[in-house]
Amino acid sequence: MIAAVLLRDRANSAAVRLSIALYVCAIAYAIREAPTFPRPWPWWSLPLAVVGWGSPVVFWLWARATFDDEFALRRWHAGLWAALVGLGFLAWKGGAIWPSLGMASDRAEALAELVLALLAVSQTFATWRADLVAGRRRLRIVVLIGALAYTVAWPLSDLSIRLMASGSLMGSLVDAFGLCVLAMVSAWSLLQAEGRDQGAPLVSALGDGLDETRPIIPAGEDGRSSVEPSLLRRLERLMTAERAYRQEGLTIGSLAGLMGVPEYRLRQIINEGLGCRNFSAFLNRYRIDEAKTALADSGQKDVPVLTIAMDSGFQSLGPFNRAFKADTGLTPTEFRRLALAKAPSKPLSETRNFEIGEAR
Description:
single chain; Arc Repressor Mutant, subunit A; 3 domains; disordered C terminus
């Protein structure tokens, strides 16, 4: 039911599509691991087995897509999924041909599941600080950590309970309890009303399609803005007039200190007032705008791209190039060449009160 609701309402989001795939994996695993399911597993259960074997990769990709706004699916992700499915097949049928191969494949599969689970939780904490979406920050704790604990239990049960003659029923009870808790938490988060005009928290956290290029000031229950315009103006002054984004190692905590507001309040201002879901994307918006101005300035045509990147607030050339191309579809060099080809006769630096590359 949850998968069907997500498919109906938000199928255009990569994170939601992976969520649907994760629910399908849970369904297949629950059916195949049920105590009454035929043992040994018949050949007609192979589709269920394939879905179950690949579920750790799906879980890891779901964590990446949900908690990293810049994540994109790659072809090698499909190769990784196929490799884990291959290990599962060898563990299933390899033992009948060569027992040592089946045992080795079984252990390799369990180890791969543990590694993918750890990668998923590392993704949760790696981007937690920069996350500005309140619902998604709660989702990290409520859903991901719980799902991680259950995912880790799979390989542990494969390594221990599977070897016990009496472990079948106990393992099934653990599986049933874990799936039940996950379903209850997900359904509560999905179906809980968060407001008259707002979507469910889970769907909103997975991807609400906010346009980060336009200001968004949502109305509260009393019809008034939930973000004070004076705070938005103060933040805009810090970022444009004082160019706080140029500061090395600027964090959301230090920016909150400059504004004189609590960190949670600044998160709300940036997310709800400006429509940004990630602090790095918020900073890069100003940095890229300043870099584009410098690259289009004929008076700075001899300033190296690296200097422009560093003075815009980037710490190295690689992240700058990636962020710049994601924003413009061009490399900085290509952008400069096209901009200077149609540049005005008067250098832009003569009309500005600062110049990238100059001493601060």
